[in-house]
Write a structure and sequence with these properties.
Layout (H helix, E strand, L loop, with lengths): L1 E2 L6 E2 L5 E4 L4 E3 L2 E3 L2 E4 L2 E3 L2 E3 L2 E4 L4 E3 L2 E8 L2 E3 L2 E9 L4 E3 L2 E8 L4 E3 L2 E3 L1 H9 L5 H10 L1
Parallel strand pairs: 3-6, 4-7, 5-8, 6-9, 7-10, 8-11, 9-11, 10-12, 11-13, 12-14, 13-15, 14-16, 15-17
Antiparallel strand pairs: 1-2
Length: about 140
């Protein structure tokens, strides 16, 4: 646990937000115990225990894996969320989406397959860090 900024009270690591700001480019994988917000670009996978937010001008070229995902920008890769995915009207996704719940605003674009429900949750839990290929194969066979 870390100390809060205002009154010195403990704050959970899951409350930490890591920001990839506008004009910033990350080449490589990003991983956090909290939230990752992408306003710039990432070439690599993005994994966050709590949530991943891709802003309107954000770009992720790689897979996203998290509990909750909110996408307003572009993603070229799969989006896997244990709980929910929110796809805003400005999103452009080229890749599959896997989640229990999905919200797609009018105007949002997805070029890929959508996998929803409890079976998706089980596949997310069963996946090992090096088992991405087996998850794709299992999803294709479902």
């Amino acid at each position: 646990m870390t100390k809060g900024r205002e009154n010195g009270t403990p704050r959970e690591l899951g409350d930490v937000v890591s920001i990839i700001g506008p004009g910033m480019k990350v080449v490589g994988d990003c991983e956090s115990d909290g939230t990752i917000r992408v306003e710039g670009s990432v070439e690599g996978s993005v994994k966050a225990a709590k949530s991943v937010v891709v802003g309107k001008d954000g770009l992720v070229v790689g897979d996203i894996s998290t509990q909750d995902a909110i996408v307003a920008g572009r993603v070229n890769g799969s989006v896997t969320a244990e709980s929910r995915v929110e796809l805003q009207s400005t999103c452009r996704i080229q890749g599959d989406i896997r989640s229990r719940r999905v919200k797609l605003d009018e105007g949002g674009q997805v070029d890929g397959q959508l996998h929803m429900g409890a079976q998706v949750q089980q596949k997310v839990e069963d996946r090992a860090p090096s088992g991405e290929k087996s998850v794709r194969a299992a999803a294709a066979g479902a």
